[in-house]
Design brief:
Layout (H helix, E strand, L loop, with lengths): L10 H15 L5 E6 L1 H15 L4 E7 L6 H27 L6 H12 L9 H20 L11 E3 L2 H6 L12
Parallel strand pairs: 1-2, 2-3
Helix pairs in contact: 1-2, 2-5
Length: about 180
């Protein structure tokens, strides 16, 4: 979260590290695993690895977690693009109608950040920027993962709004049980 650690290169790498931490606390199953969003994809890979090693997974719960596919990755990129467009609109509006700062100061800071001649300002903006970059990288990591059939059962918890669009969020027929 602080942006100072190394990014995971794959869901499998993240699952391996999380499993090492889990087994340091609970060396043997049965295990109860769950994850939200991309964390659900990692939890699924953890469960798969545990079962492969002979352990029991009593519950695997995915919370508002989409199955990663090329189509869903495209939709996520489109949503991200719309967020960027709205953000740019907010920035332009702030420049046109400055709120206590001069337009020149705001444009200079924006140009400095966008041309990477200087990183984001120190403090909160810097932490927010690093967090944003990590969230994007984390989501892309999840969407690049290819899910195979899972030998157990999956409990999928989906919010009402998403349920109306895609009840199974792409997970139908992934769990064998």
């Amino acid at each position: 979260i602080d942006g100072n650690g190394e990014a995971y290169s794959s869901v499998n790498e993240a699952a391996n590290e999380f499993l090492a931490e889990l087994r340091a606390v609970q060396p043997y199953g049965p295990y109860t695993l769950g994850g939200y969003c991309v964390g659900g994809v990692i939890a699924l890979e953890m469960a798969r690895q545990l079962i492969r090693s002979g352990e029991k997974v009593s519950l695997l719960a995915l919370l508002d977690c989409e199955r990663p596919t090329a189509y869903r990755a495209l939709l996520a990129d489109i949503r991200l693009s719309f967020r960027r467009v709205f953000h740019m609109g907010d920035v332009i509006r702030a420049i046109l109608i400055p709120n206590g700062r001069s337009r020149v100061e705001m444009i200079r800071e924006l140009a400095r950040r966008k041309t990477a001649t200087a990183g984001p300002a120190e403090g909160e903006a810097s932490a927010d920027y690093r967090f944003y970059k990590n969230v994007i990288a984390y989501r892309r990591l999840g969407y690049n993962h290819r899910v195979a059939e899972y030998p157990g059962s999956i409990m999928l918890l989906v919010n009402d709004q998403q349920s109306r669009l895609d009840r199974y969020m792409g997970w139908k027929n992934v769990a064998r049980e």
